[in-house]
């Protein structure tokens, strides 16, 4: 069987020739509501075997990840595993990507902890209830964005914002796991000075047993990834760290070494996700909506960007809005089954694709295998030492810092560097969820600043080139007409740019008092609003007061329609609005002062041949053979 674009070539979906348009419309609506109908008929024994292997591989990797991410979020370990079981199933059924695997992620886990830990004790029943409520709210936000086709809203969160946010969050995660790594209680990492002081005081009193477990787990995970990159290094490292902790704890009891300082993960009562009903009162919505919206944006950005990356490799067409709907439904459904908010996982999605997954059934099978594994080994979860978990989480956090991309941002763009640094600093010193908004505000501010300062290069026609294109007089050393100036507008003429345009044109007016006639070459991408239209009309009046005129060259119909809509054409006059430059020159040159033209030797325009020229009455210059010219024939 040959595969193309994620489906069997000999089983491509088709529509019966007898299908009526009404039936086709109903079928399209049904597939939009239940997108899994697109890929379910394509499941064959061959694809099922491939998805089965990919699902089993994914289940092995997500077991330590789910426990680690739950710890980052301030939750007992089972909630990370519930999230890894529930959200990928719903996202696979209602999403668009065939290889994206959803579940708990680092960024969302740390935002949940930062958002709720100020008002609730992490791990407490109140904290867990608030987690379900904020997950439901975030899912509703995502679903609404998808239903109204506002998925592009996530584009407001630029790449530099996410790099800065991820780097700052990674440092906070790294610091938050130090207490478990060394076995000592420390303040919250957002209180950096108090955290550093207590850490310094705790260093002489560290437990060698705790350090042995945490360092061993960390080193095994790092070395195994280098030696055997295809092996589940997190799972193996966790098993070895747990075995070492059990041996040290047993030896201490038998040999009387005293307290080892080792603590273990909370036991899991059941591997089956219990039903939960999120609390949704007015107070809960009011208190959690801001954090929920930030979570919704982060989750969508993660999911859509990862889904796009997977589709580039699998050549599958992707419906971003459908993917957003799937993410929203997965979080809404997950909140009723004891799962906290999830999103696309890059590690699991990449592994899913590399393992040969053919359909979203692989993600569903991975969730099923995880449930089976959890039911079988849930009593063993209580033997996992916190020191080993902390070591793995610190490794995850370190890998989140994209040093190569940070270096690229810092060395290529000043504006992107500013966005990155502001987001990064706000994460560390102010607030994690506010950092997303701060980064977006800075990104939009820098973008708007650019649009508020459109480019205004001075151009002149080059009569020596066919078509007489308008070119830079400085770069091409072209003469300028002493009576007319031509400016190309490179940016929108809208309310934000009007003040800048007025200032720049007054400056040019002072610098070039003789060039009273002005030709504006408006590019096709330039838009205009009411404020821009009023400025254009006022500039036309100003030119008339100076004794000149304003001529507008707008070639593209959308721009001309906008000018008609705002009455610019009527106010300036149709005889001053042109589609082509040569039409404008033919109308403008005859209006130039003939006395000035008579004394001008530049002859900038082809139309200048019809203007008065005193040089025609002057004596012809004598030939000078010494300058390399030929003598006249006799």
From TrEMBL:
<feature type="transmembrane region" description="Helical">
    <location>
        <begin position="231"/>
        <end position="248"/>
    </location>
</feature>
<feature type="transmembrane region" description="Helical">
    <location>
        <begin position="421"/>
        <end position="448"/>
    </location>
</feature>
<dbReference type="Pfam" id="PF00916">
    <property type="entry name" value="Sulfate_transp"/>
</dbReference>
<feature type="transmembrane region" description="Helical">
    <location>
        <begin position="127"/>
        <end position="148"/>
    </location>
</feature>
<feature type="transmembrane region" description="Helical">
    <location>
        <begin position="52"/>
        <end position="72"/>
    </location>
</feature>
<feature type="transmembrane region" description="Helical">
    <location>
        <begin position="160"/>
        <end position="182"/>
    </location>
</feature>
<dbReference type="Pfam" id="PF01740">
    <property type="entry name" value="STAS"/>
</dbReference>
<dbReference type="InterPro" id="IPR001902">
    <property type="entry name" value="SLC26A/SulP_fam"/>
</dbReference>
<keyword id="KW-1133">Transmembrane helix</keyword>
<feature type="domain" description="STAS">
    <location>
        <begin position="474"/>
        <end position="588"/>
    </location>
</feature>
<feature type="transmembrane region" description="Helical">
    <location>
        <begin position="79"/>
        <end position="101"/>
    </location>
</feature>
<keyword id="KW-0472">Membrane</keyword>
<dbReference type="InterPro" id="IPR036513">
    <property type="entry name" value="STAS_dom_sf"/>
</dbReference>
<dbReference type="InterPro" id="IPR011547">
    <property type="entry name" value="SLC26A/SulP_dom"/>
</dbReference>
<feature type="region of interest" description="Disordered">
    <location>
        <begin position="613"/>
        <end position="634"/>
    </location>
</feature>
<feature type="transmembrane region" description="Helical">
    <location>
        <begin position="202"/>
        <end position="224"/>
    </location>
</feature>
<keyword id="KW-0812">Transmembrane</keyword>
<feature type="compositionally biased region" description="Polar residues">
    <location>
        <begin position="614"/>
        <end position="634"/>
    </location>
</feature>
<feature type="transmembrane region" description="Helical">
    <location>
        <begin position="359"/>
        <end position="377"/>
    </location>
</feature>
<feature type="transmembrane region" description="Helical">
    <location>
        <begin position="288"/>
        <end position="307"/>
    </location>
</feature>
<protein>
    <submittedName>
        <fullName>Sulfate transporter</fullName>
    </submittedName>
</protein>
<feature type="transmembrane region" description="Helical">
    <location>
        <begin position="328"/>
        <end position="347"/>
    </location>
</feature>
<dbReference type="InterPro" id="IPR002645">
    <property type="entry name" value="STAS_dom"/>
</dbReference>
């Amino acid at each position: 069987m040959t595969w193309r674009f994620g489906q069997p070539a000999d089983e491509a979906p088709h529509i019966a020739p007898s299908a009526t348009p009404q039936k086709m419309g109903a079928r399209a609506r049904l597939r939009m509501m239940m997108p899994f109908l697109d890929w379910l008929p394509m499941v064959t024994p061959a694809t099922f075997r491939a998805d089965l292997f990919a699902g089993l591989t994914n289940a092995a990797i997500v077991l330590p990840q789910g426990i680690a991410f739950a710890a980052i979020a301030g939750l007992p370990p089972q909630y990370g595993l519930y999230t890894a079981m529930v959200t990928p199933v719903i996202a696979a059924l209602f999403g668009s990507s065939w290889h994206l695997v959803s579940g708990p992620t680092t960024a969302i886990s740390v935002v949940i902890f930062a958002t709720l830990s100020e008002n609730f004790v992490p791990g407490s029943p109140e904290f867990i209830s608030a987690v379900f409520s904020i997950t439901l709210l975030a899912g509703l936000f995502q679903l609404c964005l998808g239903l109204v086709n506002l998925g592009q809203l996530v584009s407001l969160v630029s790449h530099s914002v996410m790099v800065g946010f991820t780097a700052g969050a990674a440092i906070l995660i790294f610091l938050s796991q130090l207490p478990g790594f060394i076995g000592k209680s420390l303040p919250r990492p957002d209180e950096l000075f108090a955290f550093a002081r207590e850490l310094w005081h705790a260093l002489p009193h560290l437990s060698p047993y705790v350090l042995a477990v945490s360092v061993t787990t960390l080193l095994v995970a790092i070395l195994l990834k280098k030696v055997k990159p295809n092996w589940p290094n997190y799972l193996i490292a966790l098993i070895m760290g747990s075995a070492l902790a059990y041996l040290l704890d047993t030896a201490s009891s038998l040999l009387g070494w005293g307290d080892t300082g080792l603590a273990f993960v909370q036991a899991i009562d059941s591997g089956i996700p219990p039903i939960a009903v999120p609390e949704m009162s007015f107070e809960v919505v009011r208190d959690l909506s801001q954090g929920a919206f930030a979570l919704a944006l982060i989750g969508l950005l993660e999911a859509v960007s990862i889904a796009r990356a997977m589709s580039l490799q699998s050549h599958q067409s992707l419906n971003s809005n459908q993917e957003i709907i799937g993410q929203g439904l997965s979080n809404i459904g997950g909140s009723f089954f004891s799962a906290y908010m999830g999103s696309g996982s890059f590690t699991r999605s990449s592994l899913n694709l590399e393992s040969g997954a053919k359909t979203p059934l692989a993600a569903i099978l991975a969730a099923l295998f995880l449930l089976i594994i959890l039911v079988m080994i849930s009593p063993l979860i209580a033997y996992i030492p916190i020191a080993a978990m902390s070591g793995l989480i610190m490794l995850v956090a370190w890998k989140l810092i994209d040093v190569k991309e940070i270096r690229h941002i810092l060395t290529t763009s000043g504006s992107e560097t500013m966005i990155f640094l502001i987001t990064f600093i706000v994460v560390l010193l102010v607030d994690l969820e506010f950092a997303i908004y701060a980064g977006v505000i800075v990104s939009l501010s820098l973008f708007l600043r650019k649009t508020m300062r459109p480019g205004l290069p001075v151009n002149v026609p080059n009569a020596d080139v066919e078509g007489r294109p308008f070119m830079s007089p400085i770069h091409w050393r072209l003469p300028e007409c002493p009576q007319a100036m031509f400016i190309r507008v490179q940016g929108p003429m809208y309310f934000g740019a009007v003040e800048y345009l007025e200032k720049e044109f007054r400056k040019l007016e002072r610098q070039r008092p003789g060039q009273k006639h002005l030709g504006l070459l408006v590019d096709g991408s330039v838009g205009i609003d009411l404020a821009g239209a009023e400025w254009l009309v006022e500039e036309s009046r100003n030119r008339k007061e100076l004794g000149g005129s304003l001529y507008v060259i707008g070639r593209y119909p959308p721009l001309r329609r906008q000018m008609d809509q705002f009455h610019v054409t009527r106010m300036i006059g149709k005889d001053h609005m042109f589609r082509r430059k040569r039409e404008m020159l033919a109308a403008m040159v005859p209006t130039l002062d003939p006395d000035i033209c008579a004394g001008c030797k530049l002859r900038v325009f082809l139309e200048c041949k019809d203007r008065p020229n005193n040089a025609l009455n002057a004596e012809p210059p004598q030939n000078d053979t010494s300058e390399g010219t030929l003598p006249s024939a006799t």
